[in-house]
Design a protein that fits this description.
It is a single chain. The longest helix has 32 residues. The protein is flat, with a radius of gyration of 40 Å. A two-stranded antiparallel ribbon has the order 1-2. It has a two-stranded antiparallel ribbon with strand order 3-4. Strand 1 and strand 2 form a beta hairpin. Helices cover 61% and strands 3% of the residues. It has 386 residues and is mainly alpha-helical.
């Protein structure tokens, strides 16, 4: 049997071993997978700072929804955005329904117009195909629309040429500089135009292609149909108006962008000042040149723009007056004299081309044509009204 003194020495030895196993900060230590705590401090199980942190849960990537799998900015992506935002979708639907009901019910006086306004008008038009009222030729709208809407026609085809050039340029640039074809939506699976980049799938180029398809389909359908009346041209002119608006928007955007670029790149010319004169005037640096021609012709001046447009309008007005005079008086002798006016317009454009450059002259011409056709449209509307 061990004596009390022996047991006391063994107890002190065990305490010494335990003390040697404690960490330097004197907080906790692990022995055989179990935790020990400071002497005199109870081990609280529900105290987070006293326990080992649990491993964070594994976060799996969220699977995109059906319409979220498509390229951002494409039509399916836009539709998906609307479906995920019912307030926006509901507001648009309510406004469309209000306009439809107000117009087709004659400002809410004919409630039956809600149904007959859509289906009744289509049924009536289909029934008139065999009647062929007016017996108009297939090219009827090709003659009628230029008389009523020359402004829309001009900028429709101008816009189509511009957007076609941009599209061809983008395809050629992509051909020589191919870009990554990886998935554009995280978690999207491969499929038909899903989770990958598609040419012209974004809404802006898609809108131009859709409007061009709408215009070609409308002109083909209404030229083929037996019922041809002047008021039906609105269905052909509507997509043309949208295309013309897009073209005019690009024209205005180009003018603003190029003017800002010229303003950023322009450096004011300086006149050197003689040391004696500078000292007498108290000037230590050159002063800006104050030449009238330099002020009028500098890149940020509006004088070239307004002077070109005004001269273009004046020459075009005299050209139109000459044509009208010959037609009214039935005078077709020496008709070649009318070519003087377009020759003057070409000479004016060439002169300004050498002054401000070809790009600016082209934009000036488009603005001048816009003014001329706008005046023509207003004049025609007044005459038709009277």
């Amino acid at each position: 049997m061990k004596s009390i003194e022996t047991l006391r020495h063994e107890h002190d030895a065990v305490l010494f071993v335990l003390d040697s196993l404690e960490p330097a900060d004197g907080t906790t230590s692990e022995i055989d997978g179990e935790e020990t705590f400071d002497e005199g401090e109870p081990a609280l199980v529900d105290e987070p700072r006293r326990l080992k942190p649990r491993p964070a849960p594994v976060m799996r990537p969220a699977v995109p929804g059906l319409l979220e799998r498509y390229q951002p900015g494409s039509l399916p992506s836009v539709v998906g955005y609307l479906l995920r935002n019912p307030i926006v979708l509901g507001t648009g639907a309510a406004l469309a329904a209000l306009i439809y009901v107000a117009l087709y019910t004659s400002m809410f006086t004919n409630i039956n117009g809600i149904g007959t306004g859509l289906f009744g008008s289509i049924g009536y038009w289909l029934a008139q195909q065999d009647v062929r009222r007016g017996d108009q030729p297939w090219f009827y709208y090709f003659l009628l629309i230029p008389v009523y809407e020359p402004l829309i026609i001009f900028f429709t085809f101008t816009g189509l040429v511009y957007f076609a050039g941009k599209g061809v340029g983008a395809l050629r640039a992509r051909r020589y500089q191919p870009r990554e074809r990886g998935p554009v939506v995280a978690g999207a699976t491969s499929g038909w135009n899903v989770g990958k980049v598609v040419d012209f799938a974004e809404f802006r180029p898609f809108l131009v292609l859709f409007l061009a398809f709408w215009f070609l389909g409308a002109i083909g359908l209404y030229s083929w149909a037996g019922e041809k009346m002047p008021w039906l041209q609105i269905h052909i002119v509507q997509p043309m108006a949208f295309l013309a608006a897009l073209g005019l928007g690009q024209l205005i955007k180009s003018m603003i962008r190029n003017r800002r670029y010229r303003a950023d790149m322009y450096v004011e010319p300086m006149d050197e000042v003689a040391p004696g004169n500078g000292a007498r005037r108290g000037l230590d640096a050159p002063i800006p040149a104050a030449s009238p021609w330099g002020v009028l012709s500098k890149p940020t001046s509006w004088v070239p723009f307004f002077s070109f447009v005004i001269l273009f309008l004046v020459i075009s007005t005299f050209w139109a007056m000459s044509i009208t005079h010959r037609v009214v008086n039935n005078d077709y002798d020496n008709w070649w004299q009318l070519l003087i006016w377009p020759a003057l317009l070409l000479l004016l454009s060439a002169a300004y081309w050498s002054l401000v450059g070809g790009g600016r002259v082209l934009r000036y011409v488009l603005v001048a044509v816009l003014c001329i056709l706008s005046i023509y449209g207003i004049r025609s509307a007044i005459q038709f009204h009277l």
